[in-house]
Automatic annotation (TrEMBL):
It holds the Pfam family Pribosyltran. Its EC number is 2.4.2.9. HAMAP family: PyrR. It catalyses: UMP + diphosphate = 5-phospho-alpha-D-ribose 1-diphosphate + uracil. It comes from the Bacteria. This is Bifunctional protein PyrR. Homodimer and homohexamer; in equilibrium. The gene is pyrR. A motif (PRPP-binding) lies at residues 103-115. It is an enzyme of class 2 (transferase). One of its GO terms (biological process) is DNA-templated transcription termination. Keywords: Glycosyltransferase, RNA-binding, Transcription, Transcription regulation, Transcription termination, Transferase. It comes from Paenibacillus swuensis. Belongs to the purine/pyrimidine phosphoribosyltransferase family. PyrR subfamily. Residues 12-157 form the Phosphoribosyltransferase domain.
């Protein structure tokens, strides 16, 4: 059985998201022309939490979209990709326009970078954003592509035998980040 350690609890996750919200506001000098886009599944809930914190801080709302990158993954067989639904949707089913927007792409764990590359490809197919920034809750290293996050909740250098698991109350039993030793 793999040994596990909780490296972020509910409070640590909340603090990390609050810090990232402030960093997004500072870097973009507010939220004008900004949009949060969460990668399904947990990235969507992190994006919604960030939007809530930004609204609490700025007293203004920021659009949130969600992105399914399955059709853009380079590690799935083509037969799986043919029946995929559109990659993106908004809260009302219509996706907010991305052209000219500063997109902040959000995911739970950054590992090889292939999921983020797929997300950027999907966003570019939807329109030409002004820029794409990346926010992740955990950066565990081991990049296979030259991708670097702009906002990081926690850097967790790992071995390839370790795994990181993020659980969020919206779809799991609780908020936490766990590292599993020797589960590769």
């Amino acid at each position: 059985m793999a040994e596990q350690h909780v490296i972020m609890d509910e409070i640590a996750i909340r603090r990390a998201l609050t810090r990232i919200a402030h960093e997004i506001l500072e870097r973009n000098k507010g939220i004008e022309d900004c949009m949060l886009v969460g990668i399904r599944r947990r990235g969507v809930f992190l994006a919604k939490r960030l939007a809530q914190r930004i609204e609490e801080i700025e007293n203004a709302s920021i659009p949130v979209g969600e992105l399914d990158v399955t059709a853009y993954r380079d590690d799935l067989e083509e037969s799986i990709l043919k029946d995929e639904s559109p990659p993106a949707s908004g809260a009302d089913g219509a996706y907010p326009p991305t052209r000219g927007k500063r997109i902040i792409l959000i995911d739970d764990v950054l590992y090889t970078g292939r999921t983020i590359r797929a997300g950027m490809d999907a966003l570019m197919d939807m329109g030409r954003p002004q820029s794409i920034q990346l926010a992740v809750l955990v950066d565990r290293g081991h990049r296979e592509l030259p991708i670097r996050p702009d906002y990081v909740g926690k850097n967790v250098p790992t071995s390839k035998l370790e795994q990181i698991e993020v659980t969020l109350t919206e779809i799991d039993t609780k908020d936490q980040v766990v590292i599993f030793q020797g589960r590769g």
